[in-house]
Amino acid sequence: MAKIYKDRDADLSVLSGKVVAVLGYGIQGRSWALNTRDSGIKVIVGVRPGKSLELARQEGFEVYPVGEAVKKADVIAVLLPDMVQPSVWMEEIAPNLKRGTTVVFAHGFNVRFGLIKPPNNVDVVLIAPKAPGKAVRDEYVRGWGVPALVAVHQNFTGNALKTALALAKANGFTRTGVIETTFAEETETDLIGEQNVLVGGLLQLLRYGFEVMVELGYQPEVAYFEAINEAKLIMDLIWERGLTGMLLGVSETARYGGLTVGPYVINEDVKRRMKEAAERVRNGEFAKEWVNEYQGGAQKLRRLLEQVQNSQVERVGDELRKLMRGK
Ligand SMILES: NC(=O)c1ccc[n+]([C@@H]2O[C@H](COP(=O)([O-])OP(=O)(O)OC[C@H]3O[C@@H](n4cnc5c(N)ncnc54)[C@H](O)[C@@H]3O)[C@@H](O)[C@H]2O)c1
Ligand SMILES: CC(C)(O)[C@@H](O)C(=O)O
Ligand SMILES: [Mg+2]
Ligand SMILES: [Mg+2]
After folding, report:
1. Is the reported ipTM for this assembly greater than 0.90?
2. Does residue 27's CB lie within 6 angstroms of at least one atom of ligand 1?
3. Which of 26, 196, 208, 295 has the most other CB atoms within 10 Å of its CB?
4. Do 79 and 213 reside in the same domain of the chain?
5. Which residues bind Mg(2+) 2 (predicted)?
C-alpha cells in the first residue's frame, strides 16, 4: 500500500516565522494563498500586472513582481501556467533564489521533461492537488480538503519533505490524504489521467452521449439532463460509495444495461488508444507537441476551445443551468 500522510504526520509549525510566496494568483494560486493564510502562515503573492494582481490586492495580500516575491520568501509555490514557468524561472525566479529556499511545484511537468533545472542549493518538492483549484478552496472552507500527492526531487536542507507536508497541511490536503510519489509518476499519471479520462475522455463521452440523442430526434434539453447533468449525480454516487455502490444505487434495468452495453461502446479499441496516448506522454512526445503549440501561439488550442464554446450542447446547457439555479 502507498505511503499516505494524514494531518498527524504534518507539522504546521515548520512554517511559523517563514514567508511563503505564491507565484501566480490564478486557478490554483488564489486557493493556495487563501488557504495558507487562513492556516496562520505569512503569505505574499508574486504576479505580473493584470486582473489577478488586482484581485490579490483586493483580497488583502502584499503583491510583488515575481522576482521581488522570490527574494522575500523562504518557500515559493510556483503556481504559474506550466508553459510560462520556464521563461519566468530563467528571468525572474532563478536570479533571486536564496540558498535553502523550498521550491514547490503543483505539477512536475517542467522538472520531469527537463525544462527547468533548479540549482543544487535549494529544496525542490511537489505538492500536486488531485483536484481543480476551485475544489482546493471550497473543500478547505468546508473544513475538509482534497487529496494530493507529494514528492521530493531535491533535499538540500534535509527538511524538504517536512516543509512540503506542512504546506500540504496548510491547504487541507492532509485532512484527506497525501500520497508520496515521484515527479515522474505524478507528471505522467496526471497527464494520462486528464487526457484519457478527466478532461479529454469525459468531455468526448458526454458530447457523444448528448449528440447521439439529439441526432435521433430527441429534445436537446432532455439529452442534456440525461447525458450531462445526471453524469454529475452518478459520479457523486461513485465518489461516495464506489463503483459497486453506484451500481446498487441505480435500477436493476440500468445495472444490466450498463454492464452489458458499456463495454460494447467503450471497447478494447478505446483502451488500446488510451495506452497509445499514455505512451506519448511517457516518451515525451506530448510534451514536445504542447511546447511547440504554445510557442507557435496556441492557435489550435484556441480553435478547439471555440468549437466547444459555440456548440449546441453549450447553448442548451447554459440555459438549463440558469433555469435550474432559479435565474
Ligand atoms: N488548474 C488546476 O486546477 C490545477 C490542478 C493541479 C495542478 N495544477 C498545476 O498548477 C500550476 C498552476 O496552474 P493554474 O492552472 O493554476 O495556472 P493559471 O493559468 O490559473 O495561472 C494564471 C496566473 O499566472 C499568472 N501569470 C501568467 N503569466 C505570468 C507571468 N509571465 N508572470 C507572472 N505571472 C504570470 C497570471 O497573472 C495568473 O495570476 C500548473 O503547474 C498546473 O499544472 C493546476
Ligand atoms: C484539474 C486537473 C485536470 O486534474 C489538473 O491536472 C490540471 O492540469 O488542471
Ligand atoms: Mg494536470
Ligand atoms: Mg490533475
Report:
1. yes
2. yes
3. 196
4. no
5. 190, 226, 230
Structural domain span for residue 224: 198-266+297-325
Q: Is 81 within the bounds of a domain?
A: yes
φ, ψ for residue 173 (rounded to 5)? -70, -35
pLDDT tens digit sequence for 138-152:
999 999 999 999 999
User: CA 177 to CA 169: how far, in whole Å?
Assistant: 10
- DSSP string of 104-149? EESS-HHHHTTS----TTSEEEEEEESS-HHHHHHHHHTT----EE
pLDDT for 161: 98
Nearest CA to ligand 1 atom 38: 26
Query: What is the average pLDDT across 248-270?
Result: 98
| Residue ranges at the known binding site | 25-28, 48, 52, 133, 190, 194, 226, 230, 251
- 91 and 36 both lie in a single domain: yes
Domain count for the chain, please give it. Answer: 2
Q: Is 200's C-beta closer than 6 angstroms to any atom of ligand 1?
A: no
Instruction: Answer yes or no: do 131 and 248 share one domain.
Output: no
Does the CB atom of residue 47 touch ligand 1 within 6 A?
yes
Strands 42-46 and 19-23: parallel
Q: Domain with 99 in it: what CATH number?
A: 3.40.50.720
208 and 312 together in one domain: yes
Our answer to whether residue 107 is catalytic in this structure is yes
- Mean per-residue pLDDT over the chain, rounded: 98
Q: Select from 181, 209, 225 the last residue of a domain.
A: 181
Statement: residue 326 has pLDDT above 90: no
Show the cell assigned to 172.
487541507
Same domain, 171 and 302: no
- Say how far apart CA 85 and CA 90 lie, in whole Å: 9
Q: Which of 151, 181, 211 is the last residue of a domain?
A: 181
Residue with cell 487526457: 195
* CA distances in angstroms from 141 to 42, 45, 189, 191, listed in the order given: 18, 20, 28, 28
Q: How many CA atoms lie within 13 A of 302 on its CB side?
A: 6
Which grid coordinates are listed for 65? Answer: 513582481
Q: For ligand 2, atom 1, name the residue with the nearest CA.
A: 132
pLDDT tier for residue 1 given thresholds of 50, 70 and 90: confident
